[in-house]
Amino acid sequence: MFLIALAPLSSAADEVSTNLQTVTEVDSASREIQGKVEDTGQGSVFRMSLDELLEAKISVPAALTKLTSAEAPASITVITAEDIKYTPARNIYDLIEVYVPGAIWMNFEDGPQLGVRGIIANRNFKYLLRVNGRTLNNKGHYGAKSELEQWDMGDIQRIEIIRGPGSVTYGPGAVAGVINIITHDASSAEGLRLSTQYVERYDSMGSSGSYGYLGNNVGVFAFGSVTRTDGYKPDHFIGSNNNAPGYIGKDIQLDNEPMDYFADYDDDPQVKVHIDLSLLENWRLWFRYTQEGSTWRGNEPKSEFYGRLIDQQSVRDRQWTTTLQHESKLRENLSLSVMLSADSSDVERRRAGVQNPEPDHALNKEIDFSETEIFFRTVANWQATYRMEVALGGEYSRDYFGPGWGDDRSDMRLGEGGIIVSGPSSDAIEAGNSNSADRFGTAIFTGDGWSTETFSLFSELNLTLKPWLKVLFSGRMDKNTYSDFLFSPRVSLISNFSDKHYLKLIAQQSQRMNTAGQLFADDKNGNSPSSETLTGVEMIYSAFPNDRLSYSLSSFLNHVDVIAWNEDIESSNSLGDLQLYGFEAEVDYKWSLGKVGANYSWVKQLDWDLSSGVPSSGISYSEYNQSLTGSSGVQQGVGNDINNWSNQALKIFGRMELFDRVTLHADTRILWDFEGMKDGLEGLSKAVAGTSEEVAVEHAIRRVKDADTYDFDFRLNTSLTYKLLKGLDIQVFTQNLLGANRNKRYSYDFSGINRASPHRVRFIEEERTFGISLNFQR
């Protein structure tokens, strides 16, 4: 299986890279992910020429040993602080959708769901989220959850997105990709910075401030932000169970209101605090706190509570992290990096409808828990000879899962359907209640909670066979208290076959273990743990003809053994085998007054085979054998495409300095070929042919098609920034300035269609939105 993708290298003075590794200013607090030039005598990388950048050995994403930036053994997109500043984006999901080839996100009950290279699920547990080298996934249930919905991103220096598997370097869970967030520190954001922003359609107001001080052997950076968002009521389209699809409050459910879009969880604002200290030589200590939450955005109506309608269905997460990092040079050819960290997260998910008059009662929630982790990591790098480098490392984590912050133990709920609770007297248990933990008779009791341990070992051998050819042998092993051993090997061939032209061939396996809630339930029910495995091959061609132009071509072939949770047996099991092939092309051009870039992605399902005994899934309608509720029809397989996906995507973005004080940014996204989603409607139409439900279902499908569902999607976003004074600028921006197909944001189709109605067809029409921001720097 092959993956081929390499992002273009950016400006050596402005943005060192756009779609490859960005190398940043070297300081005493080296970072595992941040590029750090070895003792080359060249000084700041921002003053390097393109030739120097391509030759300097640095630490790059997706590798443990040092390589040049063009040799990174993965497909990487880098979003810089400049991109963040000028791009109209509500959050990191929007940024990824603008800059990452083919990437999209969809609404769902648990929040936005990210898709890269055809892989998308009902939770972001196929991705790893990292901040300054520290993995911050929610292990209990959600996966990559915190950080990604924050409106204020002024603390971020850059975001690196690995497109495709990354478990061999970063650990289990990186089946589909890795999101690396690198924050500012005293060297990159010295002095005082203040910012405020208002987004009119969402009634969102936010302010932030930071201060950075860089002295002798000490650096201090502090950042804080608060953002309040009321949201708004866009047109919410749903396909109901009774063959009456339409817009909530207009065509159907006339006595209801749709939930407010992007509204804060229970009116709690988003909060972010970050403090970073660089001490002595190569010591770094940082603390981070984030709070975010919003409505489900899964096209649900509001819930009635004591005569008023509220946004009951919503999700919130809070997280704090403290991390100490140190890197030392034991010998001239031997270095050691160490990380010691503690973090804790608190998550709540409120259910549809009000089950108890007390808003914070456990019956009004499906998920309510916290997890706390102690983490240790160390990596040794040994430059054995000029032609051979070896890296060897290990990780240990201890995790505790229990009640939410400040909650009584009887409030805790975890696991699929919230079935893991403290005991029989839990507030989450009530006979006959539709949201009771024992509604299926399967509640699992855990008292005050439980703990797990995870041990990991990983290594990499970097051999230079010829001046123009390297080979990397990489491997990782992980073992959790409740999991089997997981193995993620990789072999990479890297060739600089011609001046400034690179070709890479990468074969690897990446694995994902279940969530902690699923592993605990499997163990208590006597079931063997399952793991998901992706095997693939990747080929990357990239070229850097001159300081202005870079381009790349890529192709990938992946095979995924997909696992899923089966509520009928309260266990995870094999769902099916998915084979995907894709192609990506990227180009980046810059000049003294600006830059422009474009990328194209095509992803195609080669095959989807359901596991024995599984009638259907939301992954693809190509293999299907689902009896329809409310009908005598049976839906069979149609087509051969991925569901919840557009097979083709074209993205164009750029910015230019129009006058001395004015900068214009524009980005556009064009998506088409939603063939896998259309297959669901075709299969449903065929299933009801000749039945008594045919007329009603066909009428509903026509109503869906009349709304141009799954058609061509085009959007244009712009910003205009004016420098009022030195250090002070004002920006006006808009999302969806121009668009086609009413800017639909689809909801993730979780389990496919099982009713004689297109009730899984759900989308929100995002409206044109204007905003203004004021930024001061001294």
Give the topology, please.
Elements: H1 50-55, E1 58-59, E2 66-67, E3 75-80, H2 81-86, H3 92-99, E4 104-106, E5 113-115, E6 127-131, E7 134-135, E8 156-163, H4 167-170, E9 177-183, E10 191-199, E11 204-215, E12 218-229, E13 235-238, E14 246-247, E15 270-279, E16 283-295, E17 303-305, E18 308-310, E19 314-331, E20 334-350, E21 365-385, E22 388-402, E23 420-421, E24 444-445, E25 450-466, E26 469-480, E27 486-498, E28 501-513, H5 516-524, E29 531-543, E30 549-566, E31 571-591, E32 594-610, E33 625-627, E34 634-636, E35 648-657, E36 662-672, H6 675-688, H7 694-706, E37 713-725, E38 728-740, E39 744-746, E40 762-765, E41 769-777
Notes on the protein architecture:
With 778 residues, the protein is mainly beta. The chain has one domain: TonB-dependent receptor, beta-barrel domain (Maltoporin, Chain A, Beta Barrel). The chain has a 22-stranded antiparallel barrel. α6 runs antiparallel to α7 (694-706). The longest helix is centred in the last third of the chain and has 14 residues, at 675-688. Mean pLDDT is 90; it is low at 1-47.
